[in-house]
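Fold this: Endophilin-B1 isoform X3
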Amino acid sequence: MDLNVKKLVKDAGAALSRVVQLTEETLGTSEKTELDAHLEHLADRANATKTWTEKILRNMEAVLTPNPGNRIEDFFYEKIDKKKPNRLSNLEYVGMDMIEAGNDFGPGIAYGSALNKVGQCQQKLGQIQRNFIKDSANCYIQPLRKFLEGEMKTVTKEMSILENKRLDLDSCKNRVRKARSMLGQQSETGVSPEVLLDQAERELRIAQSEFDRQAEIVKLLLEGVQSSQAGHLRCLHEFVEAQARYYAQCHATMQDLQRELAGTRQPSPLLRVNSEDVIELTPSPSQSQNSSINPPLSDSTYVTATFETDTSNV
């Protein structure tokens, strides 16, 4: 019990000393020990890595899961180590409605049959999309989140410890300067200035040793942050492969749908002008490159239009 009380008093005294030192530095009445240039550079790069990784991760999650409510729900499921709910995508919901509508209209008619085919395609696209989201989470999002919650959190903690060690060191330096300024004077406490100086220098050596040791620990961790970018690059390549595979599958699915619909497409109505020329109202892309005037076709649906011109005002 006594040991706990002594430790508590010691920690409280150290915290108060750090607050005083930080206040004096803010007011410009005390010197501040600066980190070496290399360590400062590593710290700046680590902060930039952390900032950009957080931003990329946040935007990636928003792209893959646009609904913020679903993102919050997934976050809680991860924290309690439970499986995420298997939600249908918006495309799958659209596909279900199209299929139900097609069955209601009747699959024997052209529109009902087309709705069924397009609905089935939308469901397939939705499944492809869900697989892409799952692959992206495994190969890119989870490694980035693990980096932020593991490595970067450790770096932040050790950097905070280094800052405390730095404040302790500067506080000891101030006590040494104060003890030296009192040499040749009589101490108010009855302790000789030489004893106070010796004690302050001993505390300074201990504080300097602890600061140097913590600086080396932080330096190793910061160098590890830079090397972690190689792993992030590999994860990025895997994400690009997953995205390319996703778009290729979507493209192939849409091409299959286009071929299916092309075989059941109804001929477009034709327009006859002055009983002479026939113009297709909705020409196909291949026909639009040729002349828009075609000869009349047998058994074609057309509309006859006769134009009368009043030349009296010409």
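Residues 195 and 294 are 113 Å apart (CA to CA). Confidence is low (pLDDT under 50) at residues 285-293.
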